[in-house]
Backbone:
């Protein structure tokens, strides 16, 4: 693990440097909790100051020097002090000594942990702050007694005083990436940030402990934390120091908060002495937070709870949890999550006797997508004689925890409790079928489920089974049967709500693939509107909803819509609850949106994160690797793209055949980035034909546009017409604008037609198309259209090339590293010699020096430069550097 770097704090660092360099002489003190990063910020600020311009002294006060006169500043004062001086005289001598050492330079005195200064040192710091041409900087720890001379610094308006806040989530994520030499996945970064409270010191201890225990590990280049916490002794000692000694009453308050947070203030004061509650709040051990009309109590820091819970004896722990359950039940379980909290406390205290309580809590936890907790509660309900209902719920949860074999065992154990006449049999069939089809990859499950449905006499039970059969048939591309079954479920008034909405999700996904995006959006909206009703019965329906919605948004090019769903409530719940299928799929969507924006590094990071989360998945892993391949191809990394594509083929589930358009589209990108452009065009053409045969017009539009991006707008596709000809890509795209909804298909068709034409006005049309792509945030497509326009204008030697060049430069400035065949068109056809001369000239090397270096005559160099100016569309050297930097793939040397 690398050394901890300095991340974030840009504004605080700027403020600290400004305090020294603005000439005003006002100093700056930062206060904050221990480990928040005060000392590191001070060191970084001092390191940025030039020692030839400033006389810089840095001291670190400590408890060992606090009892010695001038002990805090012993590091900067001369060893020998003059004898016989009064205290005031000694202070004047010390100031004079520092000014003499400064030799006319401005004085900068930095004092770390200034609250530990001895009285004479504190007085000297105050005196220096009053000296002309001197600046005092320092740090203070919250909660400590500050010497009066130091406090007077800001009360006398000699320095500014600011509170150093905890690191925010982006800075914490950046710090983790720097330390681990690789990005953490989003959920792990969020959990570590919350648990550390944004405190770098505590974060360090958490990471060290997680690495040592193997709970923080790297998968596909992304670091992922399991969430299990091993408290290292050093971390426990840090927290113990912060908590300090507790009286029995205060300990009870803090322990009740540790096991019960958030806990109502009224409830806590009824279980403990109010005076002890006040003491705990005054010491920062707990905090009181207003939540709507209630006052809730939480611990002062998340890690307090981890330490206190682990240090609490077993018998006391069980008693405290039982006490909390008693308190909530006596109050009537009025809050929404009281049922879940009471069940967990009863289970942990050994007082859980009601299987109905455990089962209800398990269902509530699963509805929140907290898979580990739901598994634990459902298993406890089953062991407490919860019967078939507990077995069904546990098996369902195990399926979504990537444990299908165990789920089958649970279901088969209760198979004898239901038969065809029992209404529970339909539910057993659907759960058993779901586990077999998606978990165990048994495609024969579909036919078995259909045969079993025929035995059911209850219409609602049969509709539920048919809804599951329909989505399975969609996923294996039995499209006509999937549509027929889904419509039949929706046509049955007796069908249950969850079955109806599952069928509606199947239709919404199919409609999106077919390009009927408006119908798909309406169906998705209907399902969402009923979420409160179906979530309790079938919370995993959310996955079918997200797959349908994500497919529609990707095919429509609605990147803002993707942004919205990756940050909505489901995303938060799935991440917090370790619901990997949900977080993994949302990561794929995030990677897709970043890629179309040209944010290749962001796309690759999100794609790798999705691969890591879905490493054990039997559903979406292939799709994650395909998106990772696309991101690598966008960056021009053919090796990684090919590796990712191989992983996609290896992990893709046959039962998820409906995802083939995305995988095969990625294969085309991989062929192109590895140099096989003709193979890529052939593959994409065949893919477009297959999509047309399957009726997937929504996907076909995007694949045809990929052909346009490869310069194949006039490539023949589709069947042979009566006159023996075939439609071109541009013609087929134009035809599809009548079948596929939305603003994107007409724009893609315009791009195709402009790319297919060689007329003088095609460049202007390409630039207009680029502007419309940019308005939709499809920056990658916009840059590629502008690159083709620039290529044509240069060939025409048009005066509009300069403006097009600027437009392309602006678009590429919004992107990260992007290297696609379409962008290579903007790379002018310079010879190797011209590239060498252009690069040297852009660096400011004179023509005579270039000639000497390359063994050419100065006239030859000038002739080459004139040809370079013409090919780049620039007037001379002043514009040369900017022109070269805007060329895709140019990094200061010969272009790749």
Residues:
């Amino acid at each position: 693990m690398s050394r901890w770097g300095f991340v974030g704090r840009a504004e605080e660092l700027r403020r600290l440097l400004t305090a020294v360099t603005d000439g005003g002489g006002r100093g700056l003190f930062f206060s904050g909790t221990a480990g928040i990063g005060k000392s590191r910020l001070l060191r970084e600020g001092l390191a940025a100051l030039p020692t030839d311009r400033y006389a810089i002294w840095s001291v670190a006060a400590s408890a060992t020097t606090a009892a010695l006169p001038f002990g805090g500043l012993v590091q900067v004062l001369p060893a020998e002090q003059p004898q016989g001086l009064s205290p005031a005289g000694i202070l004047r001598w010390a100031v004079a000594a520092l000014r003499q050492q400064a030799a006319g330079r401005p004085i900068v005195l930095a004092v770390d942990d200034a609250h530990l200064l001895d009285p004479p040192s504190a007085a000297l710091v105050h005196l220096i702050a009053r000296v002309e041409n001197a600046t005092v900087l320092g740090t203070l720890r919250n909660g400590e007694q500050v010497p009066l001379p130091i406090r007077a610094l800001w009360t006398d308006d000699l320095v500014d005083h600011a509170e150093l806040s905890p690191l925010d989530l982006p800075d914490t994520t950046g710090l983790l990436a720097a330390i681990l030499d690789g990005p953490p996945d989003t959920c792990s970064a969020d959990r570590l940030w919350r648990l550390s409270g944004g405190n770098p010191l505590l974060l360090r201890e958490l990471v060290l402990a997680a690495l040592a225990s193997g709970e923080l590990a790297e998968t596909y280049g992304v670091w992922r934390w399991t969430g299990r916490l091993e408290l290292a002794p050093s971390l426990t000692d840090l927290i113990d120091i912060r908590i300090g000694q507790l009286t029995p009453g205060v300990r009870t308050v803090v322990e009740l908060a540790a096991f019960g947070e958030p806990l109502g203030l009224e409830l806590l004061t009824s279980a403990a002495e109010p005076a002890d509650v006040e003491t705990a709040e005054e010491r920062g051990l707990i905090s009181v937070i207003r939540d709507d009309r209630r006052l809730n109590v939480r611990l002062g820091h998340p890690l307090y709870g981890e330490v206190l819970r682990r240090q609490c004896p077993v018998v006391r722990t069980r008693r405290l949890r039982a006490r909390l359950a008693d308190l909530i039940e006596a109050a009537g379980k009025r809050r929404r999550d009281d049922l879940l909290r009471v069940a967990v406390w009863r289970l942990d205290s050994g007082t859980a006797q009601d299987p109905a309580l455990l089962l209800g809590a398990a269902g509530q936890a699963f509805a929140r997508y907290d898979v580990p907790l739901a598994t634990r509660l459902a298993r406890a309900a089953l062991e407490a004689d919860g019967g078939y209902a507990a077995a069904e719920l546990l098996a369902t949860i195990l399926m979504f925890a990537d444990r299908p074999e165990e789920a089958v065992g649970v279901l088969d154990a209760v198979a004898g409790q239901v038969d065809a006449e029992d209404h529970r049999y339909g539910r057993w069939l659907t759960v058993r079928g779901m586990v077999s089809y998606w978990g165990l990859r048994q495609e024969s499950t579909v036919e078995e489920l259909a045969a079993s449905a025929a035995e059911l006499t209850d219409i609602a039970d049969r509709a539920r089974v048919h809804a599951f059969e329909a989505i399975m048939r969609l996923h294996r591309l039995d499209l006509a049967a999937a549509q027929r079954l889904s419509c039949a479920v929706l046509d049955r008034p007796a069908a249950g709500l969850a079955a109806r909405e599952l069928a509606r999700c199947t239709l919404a996904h199919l409609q999106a693939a077919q390009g009927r995006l408006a119908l798909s959006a309406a169906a998705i909206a209907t399902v969402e509107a009923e979420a409160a009703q179906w979530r309790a019965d079938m919370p995993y329906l959310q996955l079918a909803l997200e797959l349908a919605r994500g497919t529609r948004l990707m095919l429509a090019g609605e990147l803002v819509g993707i942004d919205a769903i990756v940050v909505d409530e489901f995303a938060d719940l799935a991440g917090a609850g370790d619901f990997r299928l949900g977080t993994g799929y949302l990561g794929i969507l995030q990677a897709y949106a970043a890629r179309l924006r040209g944010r290749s590094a962001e796309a690759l990071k999100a794609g790798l994160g999705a691969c890591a989360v879905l490493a054990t998945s039997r559903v979406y892993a292939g799709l994650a690797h395909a998106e990772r391949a696309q991101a690598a191809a966008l960056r021009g990394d053919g090796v990684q793209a090919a590796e990712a594509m191989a992983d996609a083929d290896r992990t893709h589930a046959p039962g998820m055949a409906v995802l083939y358009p995305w995988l095969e589209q990625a294969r085309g990108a991989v062929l192109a980035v590895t140099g096989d452009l003709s193979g890529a065009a052939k593959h994409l053409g065949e893919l477009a034909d297959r999509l047309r045969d399957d009726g997937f017009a929504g996907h076909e539009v995007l694949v045809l546009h990929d052909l346009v991006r490869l310069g194949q707008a006039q490539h023949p596709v589709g069947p042979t017409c009566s006159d023996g000809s075939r439609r071109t890509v541009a013609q087929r795209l134009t035809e599809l604008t009548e079948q596929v909804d939305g603003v994107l298909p007409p724009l893609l068709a315009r791009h195709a037609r402009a790319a297919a034409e060689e007329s003088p006005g095609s460049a202007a049309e390409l630039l207009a198309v680029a502007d419309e792509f940019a308005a939709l945030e499809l920056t990658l497509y916009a840059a590629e259209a502008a690159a083709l326009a620039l290529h044509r204008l240069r060939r025409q030697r048009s005066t509009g090339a300069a403006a097009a060049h600027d437009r392309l430069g602006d678009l590429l400035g919004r992107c990260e590293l992007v290297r696609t065949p379409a962008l290579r068109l903007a790379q002018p056809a310079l010879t190797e010699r011209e590239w060498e001369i252009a690069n040297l000239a852009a660096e400011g090397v004179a023509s005579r020096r270039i000639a000497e270096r390359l063994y050419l005559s100065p006239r030859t160099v000038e002739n080459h430069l004139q040809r370079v100016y013409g090919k780049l569309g620039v007037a001379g050297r002043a514009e040369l550097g900017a022109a070269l930097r805007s060329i895709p793939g140019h990094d200061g040397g010969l272009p790749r």
